[in-house]
Amino acid sequence: MGGLLTGAPTRALLTALLAVTLSWAADPPRRIVSAAPSITEMLYALGLGEKVVGVTTFCHYPPEVRDKPKIGSYVRPNMETILAMKPDLVVVLREHGSLVGRLRRAGLPVQALEHNSLAGIYASLRQLGARAGVAAMAEQRVGEIVAALEKIRARGASLPSRGVMFVVGRTPGTIQDLVVVGRGGFLNELIRLAGGRNTFEDALSFYPRVPREEVYARRPEVLIDMGDMGQTDGVTEEQKRAVAELWKQMPLLPAVQSHRVYGVANDVFMVPGPRVAEAARLLFEMIHPEAAQ
After folding, report:
1. How many angstroms separate the CA atoms of 194 and 202, rounded?
2. With 0-12 CB in 10 A as exposed, 13-18 as middle and 19+ as buried, what is 150?
3. Listed residue (189, 200, 207) closest to 164, CA to CA
4. What is the number of other CB atoms lying within 10 angstroms of the CB of residue 102?
5. Rounded CA separation 94/113 (Å)
């Protein structure tokens, strides 16, 4: 478990970050474009919100980003729109692939991040902090996240580990074409940290497709389902209850029998960013409701 929470950088990393920070400190970016919700949340957590001049249509948090100019979707950012914003830094994810090269060929400064894990989140915060001249703030934010996660881990350490299935996709209104949280990734780490055991942790991908028969075979004790929540905005409590009712079609599942089926609609479960401690807290409350008070 200690490896999940490690936030202390190595001496070599600190030296490298200091060198980068000093080289950029004289000219930190003033106009930043974010190409992903996780990046936007990190920029705001580092106190850089006023410098953000463009975000994606999927960026919902903090609430003030809704009024920021949009560059298109996370999947299809518009190159011409980005250029028109005249940014002096565009922050993207490594999975944006060819976009990185296109931006650099257009002469724009680009920073590519990768943070599908807790360690990656800490590293990205530090990299952004170094690039923007707020390295001390980044270190503070990492320390706060690590401390909050450690408190949650400690709360669950003495409680029974329960099998958890987290559904991130399916055919709406049915229990078909299920996509669940698999191995790797920050959600898998958070489930374990919150006192659970991901029933599909041995899957070969981050988000595998699984048949209903396999769900019965894995016998999850806690079932968390946001498969109907393509948009987290405006989801009602009635809709969440309807998701829980849907799983009564599989009455032999331990999660159904113990009434531990939860319909959820919250960006914190899909955005690997500064709010991971909030996601861990919510997971803990669903995995161990008897200890959540």
Report:
1. 18
2. middle
3. 200
4. 15
5. 6
Residue 95 pLDDT greater than 50, yes or no: yes
Q: How many CA atoms lie within 13 A of 242 on its CB side?
A: 12
Supply 182's token pair.
């698999």
For residues 6-24, b (16+ Cβ closer than 10 Å) or e, as one string?
Answer: ebebeeeeeeebeebbeeb
Q: Maximum Cα–Cα distance for the chain, whole Å?
A: 63
Domains of the chain and CATH, by start: 2-151 (3.40.50.1980), 159-291 (3.40.50.1980)
- pLDDT by residue (tens digit) across 245-259? 999 999 999 999 999
Evaluate whether 226 touches 269 at the Cβ level (below 8 Å): yes
Torsion over CA: 184, 187, 188, 190 (sign): positive
CA distance 43 to 125: 8
Question: Would you state the structure tokens that stand for residue 34, as one six-digit string?
Answer: 């974010």
For 39-86, what is each residue's pLDDT tens digit?
999 999 999 999 999 999 999 999 999 999 999 998 889 999 999 999
Cis (ω within 30 of 0) for the bond into 254? Answer: no
Which residues, 6+ apart, have CB-to-CB distance to 191 below 8 Å? 164, 166, 181, 197, 198, 283, 287
Nearest to 100 by CA among 183, 33, 19: 33
